[in-house]
Amino acid sequence: MAGPSKQTVMLAELRKLGLKLTSQRVAVVREIADDCSHPTAQELFERLQPHMPTMSFATVYNTLDALVSAGLCTPRTLSPGATRFDPNTAPHHHAVCDGCGLVIDLPIDKTDADRSSRARPAHVPQGFPVRTVEQVVRGSCAACLAAKAQ
What we know:
By secondary structure, the protein is α+β, with helices and mostly antiparallel strands. The chain is 39% helix and 14% strand. It contains six helices and five strands; from the N terminus they run ααααββββαβα. The protein has helices spanning 6-16, 23-32, 41-48, 57-69, 110-118, 142-149, and strands at residues 74-76, 84-86, 92-97, 103-107, 136-139. Helix 2 crosses helix 3, helix 2 packs across helix 4 (57-69) and helix 3 packs across helix 4.
């Protein structure tokens, strides 16, 4: 039997933090819980605003901040521009398209995850505990390659 959905877990954690589950907060969680596109706060706001015209950008940002504080979402700066939010908290790497900015999660197996979480790059000073090591692979996505070929 499958465990609770990502949405259910996120909403329960917000409740534990003492936040009321307003319809707007629930909408933000529903929008990001299974979103692998690594959206910005502005992108989420623009998606939700037509359905919830009274929602403010601050509500979206504050909900994302609460999810980050609860360890349920990670802020990422993967390319120039605004911070993106990643609901995938499992160890993984990223591929970023230089053309359109598309971000793709690159899964890593448990052996690689254990190794990379303990790896200490040579240039990191002593006394700086390494929590994790991440890789960002940059290149061109299939759509950008196809557009260049035309």
